[in-house]
Amino acid sequence: MKIERFKAKNPTIMLTPMLDMFTMILIFLITAYAPEETKIKKSENIHLPMSMAKLTKIPHIQIEVTKDYVKVNGTSVTGLIPETGNSESWSVLKAHLSQLDKAEKKEPVLLLADKETSFRWIDRTVAYVAAAGYGSVYLVTETGKEKKP
Amino acid sequence: MKQFSNRKDVHPIELNLTPMIDLFVSLIAFLLLCAAFIRYGGVHVEVPQAATREDVKTNQDSKKLSLTFEIIGNDVVITGYNGDFTNPIPSVKANFSVTEMEKMKEYLRSLHQKYPVMGISIFHAAPETRYEVGMHVLDAMKASTVVDQVVFGAGVVE
Question: Most exposed residue of A128, B22, B38, B103, measured as fewest CB within 10 angstroms of its CB?
Answer without folding.
Answer: B22
